[in-house]
Design brief:
Layout: H1 6-12, H2 48-61, E1 64-68, H3 71-79, E2 87-91, H4 96-107, E3 112-116, H5 121-128, E4 133-137, H6 149-158, E5 162-166, H7 171-174, E6 184-188, E7 202-206, H8 209-222, H9 228-238, H10 241-260, E8 265-269, E9 276-281, H11 284-291, E10 299-300, E11 310-313, E12 328-332, H12 338-353
Parallel strand pairs: 2-3, 2-4, 4-5, 5-6, 10-11
Antiparallel strand pairs: 1-7, 6-7, 8-9, 9-12, 11-12
Helix pairs in contact: 1-2, 2-9, 3-4, 5-6, 11-12
The structure holds pyridoxal-5'-phosphate.
Length: 354
């Protein structure tokens, strides 16, 4: 059989064998323990419903997947891979939780942290020297910056550092970092992969067998294991990932053009792909806070990647980087009809200007 396309992989991976009376979907196995003598043994070590999710995401990214209880559980586990006092490089505009997790480790003397401007590739390359872990997020949340992944991976590997790339925004359908020699791909499966704003789940994917063993071992030791129901729901969500990504992306692209022409909008940041768009409102924080009261379809909520369109002013979070503009509103574009989305958003923006 030729290599399957990602759409087919999303639909077919992680299913039971085609045998008479087998269910088409891997069932939800609710078990804290298993009859001894097999491979599973105990509920903190393994679960067939997690494996189904891991098989789908691993196949899409092109590596082996380990699922975690949340994206942050995956972030914490990867940050903990480095030795005491090691240097970790991270974009200053990486997801707030990742930056805070690293700051917490540094405050306790566990690691040294170097925050970088991801768009300044020379500076990132220079920071890779003597690093043990180089963290990439491309595009970043919420500044939507991109980076030169191959150049940074080469510099990091030269220094003997692991490279992790948080691929939450792009999904494996729009970017496959393992093909660019990244060591670990990380996901908040809470977002596009789950796709329905009804679960928390995280994952890492790697081709490095040694790392895979360490990551699985740490998951068992910390107990940061996925919920069975969550893994099942996320697997179900991924069956339509390609359709949702395609629709949400085409909606986002149509909105970007229109937003650029709106008087309330000073700047539109969009990396050219995906369904996340950041707009900087000319009226700053006040305009952003007003906007949230003016929409009816668009929901004011944090998080992103659901079927429904949501938005929030990111600086409402105290820990968000001061370099993120006060008036930056991050839109997570959903799969509704784009004309309905624009009618709601443009009328709310009109009110903000008035
Ligand atoms: N990485 C990115 C890019 C995110 O946006 C988030 C959450 O917003 C996380 C990681 C953390 O994931 P979770 O909320 O599933 O713990």
């Amino acid at each position: 059989m030729p290599d399957l396309t990602p759409a087919t992989v999303a639909v077919t991976a992680g299913r039971p064998a085609h045998e008479p009376d087998a269910p088409l979907n891997t069932p939800i196995t609710m078990a804290s323990t298993y009859v001894a003598g097999g491979d599973l043994e105990y509920g903190r070590y393994a679960n067939p419903t997690w494996t189904a999710f891991e098989d789908v995401l691993g196949a899409l990214e092109g590596g082996s997947c380990v699922a975690f209880s949340s994206g942050m559980a995956a972030v914490a586990t990867v940050l903990d891979l480095v030795g005491h006092g090691a240097k970790v490089v991270m974009p200053r505009h990486a997801y707030l939780g990742s930056v805070m997790g690293l700051a917490d480790l540094e405050a306790r003397g566990r690691v040294t942290a170097t925050l970088v401007d991801l768009e300044d590739t020379d500076a990132v390359v220079a920071a890779c020297e003597d690093a043990a872990l180089v963290w990439l997020e491309s595009p970043t949340n919420p500044a939507l910056e991109l980076t030169d992944v191959p150049r940074i991976v080469a510099a990091a590997h030269e220094a003997g550092a692991y490279v992790v790339l948080d691929n939450t925004f792009a999904t494996p359908l729009l970017q496959r970092p393992l093909e660019q020699d990244v060591d670990i791909v990380l996901h908040s499966a809470t977002k596009m992969l789950g796709g329905h704003s009804d679960l928390l789940l995280g994952a890492v994917v790697t081709r490095d067998e040694e790392l895979l063993g360490v990551l699985r071992g740490r998951r068992s030791l910390t107990g940061a294991v996925p919920g069975t129901m969550e893994a099942w729901l996320a697997t179900r969500g991924m069956r339509t990932l390609h359709l949702r990504v395609e629709r949400a992306q085409s909606n986002a692209q149509a909105l970007v053009e229109r937003l650029r022409g709106h008087a309330a909008v000073e700047d539109v940041r969009y990396p050219g792909f995906g369904s996340i768009v950041s707009v900087v409102l000319a009226g700053g924080a006040l305009a952003g806070d007003l906007l949230v009261r003016k929409t009816s379809l668009w929901v004011h909520a944090t998080s992103l990647g659901g079927a429904e369109s949501t938005f929030e002013r990111r600086r409402r979070w105290k820990g968000e980087a001061q370099t993120v503009p006060e008036g930056l509103v991050r839109l997570s574009v959903g799969i509704e009809d784009v004309e309905d989305l624009w009618a709601d958003l443009s009328s709310a923006l009109d009110d903000v200007v008035a």
